[in-house]
Amino acid sequence: MVDARIPAGELADKWNNYKKDSKLVSPGNRKKLDVIVVGTGLAGASCAASLADLGYKVKTFCFQDSSRRAHSVAAQGGINAAKDYKNDGDSIFRMFKDTIKGGDFRSREANVYRLAECSASVIDQAVAQGVPFAREYGGYLATRSFGGVQVSRTFYARGQTGQQLLLGTYQALMRQVGAGKVTCATRHEMLDLVVVDGKAKGIIVRDLQTGAIERHAANAVVLATGGYGKVYNLSTLAMGCNSSAIWRAHKKGAYMSGVSWIQFHPTCLPQSGEHQSKLTLMSESLRNDARIWVPLKAGDERKPNDIPEAERDYYLERRYPAFGNLSPRDIASRAAKERIDAGCGVGPMKNAVYLDMLKAIKEQGKDKITEKYGNLFGMYEKIIGINAYQEPMQISPAAHFTMGGLWVDYELMTTIPGLFALGEANFSDHGANRLGANSLLQSSVDGYFIAPLTIPNYLSDELKAPKIGTDHPAFDEAEKHVREQLQLFLKAKGTLSVDYFHKELGKLLYDKCGLSRSKKSLEEAITAIKELKQKFSTELKITGDDKINSELEKAGRVSDYLELGELMCYDALEREESCGAHFREEYQTKDGEALRNDDDFCFVSAWEWKGKDIPQELHKEPLVFEAVELTVRSYK
């Protein structure tokens, strides 16, 4: 059993109780302590800027050429906060309850309440940085709804919210760089974590511009490297997104949690052929005004505008009347797949459904819709070649967000002391399904308001510990392991590219551990992945050398994906229930909804690496619900 170290007291008092009792580092001592932050998206950059502003010495690392290219820019629709500007009944507790329910009661109460509690401060922070949120005519910040809620709590900057928030965070980071408090290393990839006497003390990185292997030591390490949805190959994630930082930390002792909880986004552009390497996300915010439907009759070849109302199936409105087109993502994605599998799919590959804005345009006017979603309409026409002001968009579910990640306690510290995980790199806030617009929120809250208060609690004791330098034997061992791994890839004499293995793994996982899973499909996937891993070790071909070599970079990432994909299937196989995005076909109600098993599976899985080809050990963190009642999750 793992200890989340949740503070005592009533739910609403826990965060204040923690801050009241946590240890501090005096301003004069902060400059003696070094912190490494890996990943400079919204969570990493905000944490680095905040810690540097407090006086700590910070080094950041990212594989992009600029923090501005972090995948946080891809979050389009908005960021949630319980400010209740619409006076429609929102509150911190309602937001907390919506989030717990949205995750199908598989997240930790204390962490989720803190997320809602800190949400209002994030909006104030962003406004102070100049983030251009949409405003009402009178000047007040505008809000809209997102899936899984019945209030308007989502603040937005058209369809560019993630980009605008990241620019605000980027300027905060660059201010600290200019002040000499942060050192930024771009085009560097973390290849291993260095652990000394059980504590995280540094990292091994590779300079992607020269191939040089570097050592960096610190008193604490923060991983803010995003999610691992790219394990499916075709996903909404950027091409460079990967799992290597958290997976290498996992193999050094950090537990992984909820790894099979993968969210498929319901409003993505459908796959158009085998040539694609990624999929394009269309913001969930469109569902505020759109109606989603398919032809009532399977195999209907008519153009959408030629199909009359009586011959359309608005399946979300039919199945979930209370929430309709704003049903949570996991439910909306499964409902779309069910209609597609029933033969009602549309588009050239019959793998999509319609997202129809024509009624909203008629009622509100084209100018109003353009004001809210104009860049999305432009992006759609540029990619698909169809004017969505005149014809419905075609959308399809796609692998998107990973609720799983490194297990962390209340302080966002992993099972390795001194190693912290923020944002999508950890598992902490979303349970088995994330509500839309909570991703930008969690990243910001973790980086601005939680880690800068919890990391000092750990660092206060590090002042008394001996300073560990890069000449320590643990750095020698870690670097040796990294170099051996790279040479192993380069020496491979096979005939198959890295992309071949990535595509094969992605197909396996999508078919057998995707929107739905079964005991049979998961067992088949585990057997097939083991075979694919063996084939990877003998049939891989890497061209080039150990200098500038993108194929070598990809080989390391896909090698990690193969191991991670296997654990995903074991995690899904072990959890004999359906909850949130984890839909086991054997466990569903008579009308096809997820069927939880709270008696046996009301816990967070935490997997411990035991060695190559050795089954991982499952630890369980029981989930205790005191503020909300465990009820059937219904949006009908």
Labels describing this entry:
single chain, 636 residues, alpha+beta, Methane Monooxygenase Hydroxylase, Chain G, domain 1, 5-stranded antiparallel beta sheet, FAD, flavin adenine dinucleotide binding, Succ_DH/fumarate_Rdtase_cat_sf, flavoprotein
Low-confidence stretches: none
How many distinct helices? 17
> What is the class of the domain at 266-399 in the CATH system?
Alpha Beta
Rg to the nearest angstrom?
A: 24 Å
Please state roughly what percent of the residues sit in beta strands, choosing from under 5%, 5-15%, 15-25%, 25-35%, 35-45% or over 45%.
5-15%
Please state the overall shape, judged from the principal axes of the Cα atoms: globular
Largest sheet: 5 strands, parallel
> Which strand order spans the largest sheet, edge to edge or round the barrel?
6-2-1-10-18
Give helix % range: 25-40%
**At the fourth CATH level, what is the homologous superfamily of the domain at 266-399?**
Succinate dehydrogenase/fumarate reductase flavoprotein, catalytic domain
- Please provide the count of β strands: 20
